[in-house]
Amino acid sequence: MSLGSSLFISVQAMLTDQAALAVTSNNIANVNTAGYTREVANLEETPPAQFGNLDFGGGVQLSNIQSIRD
What we know:
It is built from 1 helix and 4 strands, in the order H-E-E-E-E. It is of the alpha+beta class and 70 residues long. The longest helix has 27 residues, at 3-29.
């Protein structure tokens, strides 16, 4: 795995975490809003890259944002 690949995975993870943090921030900002439903950021593993006989993890990505209703 090259340095560029490692940096790409790191940037992708930071962007994913930033999106999840934005969802959490939105939940906190709207805690007292009537009719607001909490949202959850669902994360998923990206497909691994295969080099010869070795598999390298591909990091994480935001799969969707789900609204939680009672």
